Amino acid sequence: MEAENSEVAALVEKFTGFHAAISKLPSLSPSPQVDALFTELVAACVPSSPVDVTKLGPEAQEMRQDLIRLCSTAEGLLEAHYSDMLTALDSPLDHLGRLPYFDNYINLSKLENDLLAGHMAAPARVAFIGSGPLPFSSLFLATYHLPDTRFDNYDRCSVANGRAMKVGAADVRSRMPFHTAEVADLTSELGAYDVVFLAALVGMTSEEKANTIAHLGKHMADGAVLVARSAHGARAFLYPVVELDDIGRGGFQVLAVHHPAGDEVFNSFIVAQKVKI
Question: Given 3-state DSSP classes, what are the helix, strand and coil percentages for the chain, each rounded to the nearest 5?
Answer without folding.
Answer: 55, 15, 35
